[in-house]
Design a protein that fits this description.
With 434 residues, the protein is an alpha/beta fold. Helices cover 32% and strands 22% of the residues. The chain contains 13 helices and 21 strands. The strands form six sheets. The protein has a four-stranded mixed β-sheet. Strands 4-5-7-6 form a four-stranded mixed β-sheet, with helices on one face. Strand 10 (213-216) and strand 11 (219-222) form a beta hairpin. Helix 1 runs parallel beside helix 2 (48-73). It starts with a strand and ends in a 5-residue tail after the last strand.
Length: 434
């Protein structure tokens, strides 16, 4: 269902209790599943991605128990086959990657699949590295893509060489299972490493739970061992905060407090506080969070930002620059091609449709200045089943009324997004179905 947004006066004031980080939540869940003793995860994300991961981990554990019970009862092969689960992650890309590695070391056979878009997202690099380590994984349909048939087993571990330009989620998925490998794991990188802050987040969380993991020159070394139970509190999501930075930049006046964020963050997207300085947004750390205010003036020409370490906030920044009529070049966007949609192409299509000037040069996005800003937005914004497309374009409603298709897509990472907008006087209209 589409949703139409507007704001009565462009003035934002209020307090928001920001959604929890799904990046931290999903890593905590995998480590919890790999730990011999249980521990509490406080402030776990309520995003669809995290719920999916929880569900599949629970189903996986249940499958192990059921199969064991069936073996004891000596049930028929036909009955036992019913418990060889097909586990689906839907559209949850992080869950697909983390579970591929996790299930490869579990003593069970499963088929890991997802929605149609998930079957179009490559996973060959991760699968081939796992197979190099001894994993038994095969493709059920198309080579290099889900669904995967995974027969879990103990893995020896050792040393692997990986292209640093692959998704950080591949690296993180390997790192988290590494302490459970007989010889641990050494990952050596070739070329430039992208999204390095996400890898560092994984390493810091592994250390928090007792793993021995270190950078050694251009390699990460993980020693074999056990995770230690340790209660963990998930921080609020800096990626979600980026939409509020965009709103403050586009507002006439703004004074917004976002609760749950901290100065010493594990999240690479905390860099949003630095890059939005260019667009007139001031960040002040206060008790329990941050306060965002709008500078009275800012001037910048030919802005260039490299997003190689934090690609998830590139869409938001691109739209903000276009709306402020700031000429900008966004680089380091290679991984945006293989997200929920081709985000580079989607951004160009939707911004152009609204009246802005956008060029794409290979994997770079160029925002051009325009002679006159759009008087109104006459066409709805497509989301392409991508949560970030919906939330990235929502701040434009501070300038003109805008319609965004598929309001429910935000549930993937920020389920309360629309409710939080209403708290600061955005007006949300849905079509009358009667």
């Amino acid at each position: 269902m589409s949703i139409t947004l507007s704001h009565p006066n462009g003035i934002l004031k209020g307090e928001i209790y920001l959604t929890s980080s799904k990046s931290e939540s999903n890593r905590a869940l995998i480590i919890q599943a790999l730990c011999d003793d249980d521990f509490e995860i406080e402030n776990l994300s309520i995003s669809n991605d995290t719920k999916v991961l929880q569900k599949v981990l629970s189903e996986s554990l249940r499958l192990e128990t059921v199969c064991a019970d069936n073996e004891q009862a000596k049930v028929s092969d036909k009955t036992a086959d019913n418990y060889q689960r097909t586990l689906s992650v839907g559209l949850a890309g992080t869950a697909m990657r983390f579970l591929t590695a996790y299930l490869s070391i579990q003593d069970k056979e499963v088929v890991l699949t997802g929605a149609q878009r998930m079957k179009e997202r490559p996973i060959k690099v991760l699968v081939e590295v796992l197979k190099e380590l001894g994993a038994n994984i095969s493709y059920k349909e198309n080579e290099g893509f889900p669904p995967l048939n995974i027969i879990g087993r103990s893995l020896i571990g050792g040393k692997v060489i990986i292209d640093g330009g692959i998704s950080s989620q591949y690296i993180s998925s390997l790192l988290m299972i590494a302490p459970k490998l007989e010889k641990g794991l050494v990952i050596s990188f070739e070329g430039e490493i992208i999204s390095k802050p996400y890898i560092n987040m994984t390493i810091e969380m592994m250390r928090y739970f007792g793993a021995a993991v270190n950078w050694e020159e251009n390699s990460i070394v993980v020693k074999p061992g056990k995770y230690k139970a340790n209660n963990f509190k998930v921080e609020a999501d800096w990626s979600a905060a980026s939409y509020w930075y965009s709103m403050v930049a586009l507002a006439k006046e703004a004074d917004i407090t976002l609760h749950g964020l901290k100065k010493e963050s594990l999240q690479g997207d905390a860099v949003v506080q630095d890059i939005y300085k260019f667009l007139g947004v001031k960040t002040e750390f206060v008790k329990g969070g941050i306060r965002l205010t709008k500078s009275s003036e800012f001037e910048i020409e030919n802005l260039e930002v490299d997003f190689i370490d934090y690609p998830d906030i590139a869409q938001t920044f691109a739209v903000t620059c276009a709306a402020l009529n700031v000429k900008a070049k966004l680089t380091g966007l290679k991984t945006l091609r293989i997200k929920e949609t081709d985000r580079i192409a989607a951004l160009q299509i939707e911004l152009t449709k609204l009246g802005y000037s956008v060029e794409v040069d290979k994997d770079d996005i160029l925002i051009n200045k325009i002679v006159s800003v759009p008087a109104e937005f006459t066409q709805p914004v497509k989301t392409y089943d991508d949560h970030r497309m919906a939330m990235t374009f929502a701040p434009l409603s501070l300038l003109n009324e805008i319609t965004i298709e598929d309001e429910n897509v935000v549930g993937k990472s920020y389920p309360n997004f629309w409710k939080d907008l209403e708290k600061v006087d955005f007006v949300l209209l849905k079509p009358n179905l009667h």
